[in-house]
Amino acid sequence: MTDIADARxxxxxxxxxxxxxxxxxxxxxxxxxxxxxxxxxxxxxSFFLNGRYKLGAGTVNLDGLYVFQFDVxxxxxxxGNAVPGNTGNTxxxxxxxxxxxxxxxxxxxxxxxxxxxxxxxSYAAENYETATSVSPSGYTLPTLTSLNFDQFDALRFDxxxxxxxxxxxxxxxxxxxx
Amino acid sequence: MALELSVKADLLKxxxxxxxQLILEIDGIPFIYGAITVTKLALYGDDIKYGDAGLxxxxxxxxxxxxxxxxxxKTTRQITQQLEVDKGGVGSVQRFNVQLVDKNQEVTQAFRxxxxxxxxxxxxxxxxxxxxxxxxxxxxxxxNGIITSQQASPGSWIVGIDHPEYLKRQxxxxxxxxxxxxxxxxxxxxxxxxNVAGTLVEPGDSVRSYVRIDDELIEFSGVSGNVLTxxxxxxxxxxxxxxxxxxxxxxxxxxxxxxxxxALKLMLSNDGNVAFKTGVELPAFEQVTPSTTIENGLVFNxxxxxxxxxxxxxxxxSVSGATEGANNFTDGVIAAFVKEPTATVIIVSGPTLVVxxxxxxxASFKSKxxxxxxxxxxxxxxxxxxxxxxxxxxxxxPSLPDYEHYIKDTINAxxxxxxxxxxxxxxxxxxxxxxxxxxxxxxxxxLDDLVELNNSNTEKAATNKLTRGITKNFYNSVxxxxxxxxxxxxxxxxxxxxxxxxKNRINTGNKSLTITSNGxxxxxxxxxYIKAQTRRFLDRWQFGAxxxxxxxxxxxxxxxxxxxxxxxxxxxxxxPDVEEGSRDxxxxxxxxxxxxxxxxxxxSLELLDTGVGLDGRFGVISPNSFVGSGSTTSKVVLKASFxxxxxxxxxxxxxxxxxxxxxxxxxxxxxTEVTTLQQFDPETLTAILVDPPLSGAPAxxxxxxxxxxxxxxxxxxxxxxxxxxxxxxxxxDIVSGISTTVFEVxxxxxxxxxxxxxxxxxxxSFSDASTPDAVTDDLQVVSIDTGTNRVTVSGDMGFTPSAGxxxxxxxFKDGGLPYRLI
Lengths: 178, 822
Known about the structure:
The complex is a heterodimer. Chain A has helices at residues 13-16, 24-40, and strands at residues 43-52, 59-67, 72-83, 90-98, 102-106, 108-110, 113-114, 122-127, 132-134, 139-140, 143-144, 148-149, 154-161, 167-177. By secondary structure, chain A is mostly beta strands. Chain A folds into 2 domains: 1-41, no CATH class; 43-177, Sandwich (Jelly Rolls). Chain B contains 10 helices and 52 strands. The longest helix of chain B is centred in the middle third of the chain and has 18 residues, at 524-541.
């Protein structure tokens, strides 16, 4: 079995009108367009800590909870900060909550970390669909325990530690319904 | 057609005087036995000289391993294939005898145990027919099997070969009856039986293992000698209980999975899951020629290894004996096949190969379906099973429900696969391509190259008799019994469908096709599938399928096999056409259900029309190709397009279009042009010749297409394409509903309706729909008023449609029925 290649193609009226043949070409275009949507469309939730965020180190539940409305799979993550710090490391943790608020633990086995060697306005990202990533100096990509979350699972953003002087931290989680 | 011929073989078979060759190959015996001299393609390094006798351009040279020892006197001359689809397609198991002249006692010596093989009995053998070309390239395998007998006679040997179906005649999941060795309580998690060591089928892929003691089914996850461990008490709705010492214990298994996967696993699994083929010479890694390397490629000097071994992507290959250590590996996965002029390259994933030539390495192959535990598989090789056709069936029906078979007693593999795996899911077994194959009980669909049979290539046309009756090939109801109880043999669920259309038309009593399924469980998916399959069965038999006996000439009939679909008939045959009510017989698709091939040149066929009285048509998606570079106005080069494989020619998908109109267009339809496909270009394998010439040389990446369904009332206009492929039927909006039997449409739509056309009237959500279930008649148009644009249908829709309701099906202006989903 081979997937039809993703293709952002439009279907022509002449291909589906009365008396038109149902053909390889037509179904390939339909399949390519569907696969394009299935593989490349996603939603994103962003956790932001604006300004100097050192104050939040050791705090759980920063920037609110995000609750999934459908069963989803994570397709990618990205994170970074605008201004690197002087000392220490920034370590992010995200916990999964279930059943309306029960802490089901960290979603990471390896947590995302940013060190002082990270550049200004730098970021790291990993795409699990394509198994590709970018991770510049000063970044440790996380490892997720599972890419799947169920309806009404929630994410809680915690800051385990933070660099002194670092500013504008973000963590994006990109996901799609499954 | 089922038998695949090389381009040269296809041309050779069309010769008036056929120089026929019969060839026998026996696994492990280095000689190739022929009825006449066996020839092969000349290769670099062969010892030939210009002027050698019999050496011609394009011809072959005598194969040094060839032995022209076959005598046709006591060699099987007639092969019979017969289908009985309503009994699961139980084709009689075939046998083929080959008589070998024992010249200088060479055959006796070759067959001596230990000379080349341990014993000639049980060795795999292949029988080919050739037409004067080179072997194996231009030969056609007509029989594959296992040598089951050898008979000496004065001066000759007769070798008896049984079809691979023979291999399915074996017992699997042998029932074990034993006694408890010590009493057990209701919560114990291990137990000991007396004298069962090595007799139970242990749990594994698709198989769960149990013992039944009294009325409790106890699942076990491991066996150590006589001790069963990892017990799950009270399994399959039974109740956990204590049992006395020496209580009777009987084996019980479940076998679960998709029907097609299960059939392949049952046939291809062997004890220990070992390779089906070992010791295949592997002379090179990655380097095909000094200038060509293919990454991670195993280079075999055999252009037909994929077909001869029956290999598929996903099968496993292991290599030993390579000089480079990196080239020795176990269970690499076959990722692709690449066909080279004198070699086949198998690309593997898993190991990281390095270039090596002149290697003395050997390869072994294991089927990806060789996964069942010991005692659960027939141990057939993929060369004996038509794996590709099984996978095609799986593609046709991607939503097959899973089985969960309860195996309470020893099963006969052949009967089980036929009656419990294939038939309830709508498949039937069929011996094709010399292999154990499968087909499905759907109306005729053209899935292969189509052979046309008419007065030009059938004989005894005057005596052709079209037969139809209610004693054979007729059922007006289908009964499914399924979801068998785990402890007794009661079926706990059932489905009955009666065709009222059939009863209205043919006034007879119930004639039921009853299907019992041990493996179907009572789920929504299963019931939906059974309902769909019931309709397919009724489509085939509810109006009495018509059959006809024909004899064909050799060149037309040779490649046809049972279960093939042919386009039969024309007016010159003077056969009555029941549907049309005339003797002007219209070509129609029919299924070959019986074939007798006399290897001396005569072919008899029985054809069955499985689409009599249908309220719709069925077709397959039509092909497309992209235009390649270098085309002219009359010669169109084709690119490999839309998944055409490494071993396939793009133009082959257009075989059924020879003499038919094709359309050349761009993707947006701003350019379209229709011409006729005249022939394949004899000069190049990638081009077709068209006439009339196109207005200009077509640019690269234009699309070759099937033109639209003709917008006229001539049913014969492109009849063949209408029979083979699908076209979109109209959907018409209702302007206003007049009553429960009358609706009005827009003036532009009224000419789409014909009296007797089938229609479904519905709203967008189908909460109002004129067809409550799949077996009840759809409504038909009874009158059309072109003045008021009103259409009257044959019965009560059950609602008065509102503006915006849809009319579906309708069909075509030529009276052609709508295309429906299978």
